[in-house]
Specification:
Radius of gyration: 19 Å
Strand order of the largest sheet: 1-6
Number of helices: 9
Largest sheet: 2 strands, antiparallel
Number of strands: 6
Helix content: 40-55%
Shape: elongated
Amino acid sequence: MKRNLLSCKWMLNIILLLSEKPYRPSEIKRNIKGLKERVMYDRLSKLVEAGIVGKEASKGYPKETYYYLLERGEITALLEWLRTLNVPVEIVSSVFSCKWTPQILELLKAPSSPKSIKLKIEGISDKVLHERLRELQEIELVERRVIPTKPVSVVYELSEEGKRLLPHILKTCELIACK
């Protein structure tokens, strides 16, 4: 199963680390707890291939290789957002590992009730929809509004931050996939 860059916690962690300065592979592995060497090299090669990360090797001996983050608008905007969040990267990657998340975000450009969202996304269950809406609210991309009508109505819409980041999120979801 292929997932987008935002759904891979290792890629997010690597990108966040490389946004500080260039790092050697051993330094990356040391700074990201739990990252296995094979997984690290796989993610680094995918990031290099996608043009998100650059790789520079020294010509001398011993040979030293450094990885660094390339300037990309969508990545820069997402990094700024990730740094301001008070939630772990694992939660962000969990939200974006759901295939429904980009569709939900697209629909929330306009205020929508859960029922209207469910009607527009074929195959999504009530449970998954409500979990995603709650998680998107937790990472501050979506706002929930209760409308005092009879019966009470609830609508969700993109927050200001969600509106600002949506194009970057959608572009990043298309950029690269990890298994």
